[in-house]
Amino acid sequence: MKPLSILLAVATLIMAILLIRQHAVTGELKANVEGLTKDRDEVRSELKKLNTRLSERPSTTVASGPNPAGTTSPLPAKVSSPTPVEPVAPPGVTIAAPKGWWKNGRNPENYVVGVDTLQSWGGMPSAYVKSLGETKDGFGGMMQSSSAENYAGKRVRLNAWVKTEDANDGGGHLWLRIDGQERGQMLGFDNMDNRAVKGTTDWQEASVVLDVPAGAASMNYGFFVSGSGKMWVNGQTIEVVGPEVPATNMLKPETAKPKAPTNLGFYPDPKT
Fold it and tell me: Are 119 and 250 part of one and the same domain?
């Protein structure tokens, strides 16, 4: 064989070897890239699962409080109040205010109202309000509003029979408010703040008595439980009573409108 032919054969062999090595290296690199891509996808999947689990955990409130060693450290001291669980109506009980009434209160989302046919008084079903879990800050109940026209110049009594269960914070209350013609003007008010029905009690009578001045615009009334607990109300009436029945108005005399003009002469210290 001629030297040139030998050189060409050797060169061809070397090129073939190099191509084979390059192909092998390329295949190995491709396999490595595919493996890394798979690992990346698995890491992303695990991170997504972890984020989902973290988002489902209850939030915490950071507050300064003693740690186990007795020193003060800005660590999470308490878990914030959980969102109230949506109530479910058991048989014989509704979870909405009946016609003519509406739910009211402060933080009303922490309370449920309705009609309870299982708790009766005088053969009639009862209205009720119940706190959803422990809630000391707030109150909830039902109310309605009506014109004061038919009671103007008279003394009225809101009367009902009430029953409570675990109303250990602020207790159960009836309330009545007489409003004037001007926005925000209260002519009379009582919510049994000084005689609330607390704890767990059987049926008992409760009442609120107010005068309805001439020219009063509306009467607003209802019941509520303050803090945690449950309250039932039945046999509620509004009736006209005589002056022998003491009024329970909680407003100070100066907060109500005077019945007649005063000091039209602008005297510094009017006597009449």
Answer: yes
Q: What whole-number distance in Å separates Cα of residue 222 and Cα of residue 89?
A: 22
Residue with tokens 């675990």: 166
Q: Yes or no: say if 155 and 247 are a contact pair by the CB < 8 Å rule.
A: yes
**Same-domain check for residues 39 and 167:** no
CB atoms closer than 10 angstroms to residue 247: 16
Tokens 């109150």 belong to residue: 139
Say if 92 falls within a structural domain: no
d(CA 30, CA 47): 26
Token pair for residue 191? 């919510």
Q: Do residues 3 and 112 both lie within one domain?
A: no
Domain that holds residue 45: 1-54
For the chain, 272 residues long, give each residue's pLDDT as a single digit of tens.
556 566 666 667 677 666 666 665 556 656 665 665 666 667 566 666 656 665 555 443 333 333 333 333 333 344 344 555 667 778 899 999 999 999 999 999 999 999 999 999 989 999 999 999 878 889 999 999 999 999 999 999 999 999 999 999 999 999 999 999 999 999 999 999 999 999 999 999 999 999 999 999 999 999 999 999 999 999 999 999 999 999 999 998 765 566 677 777 777 765 55
| Three-state secondary structure readout of 40-92 | HHHHHHHHHHHHHHHHHCCCEEECCEECCCCCEECCEEEECCCCCCCCCCCCC
| Distance between CA atoms of residues 199 and 172, nearest Å | 9
3-state secondary structure (DSSP) of residue 173:
strand
Contact between residue 80 and residue 61 where contact means Cβ atoms under 8 Å apart: yes
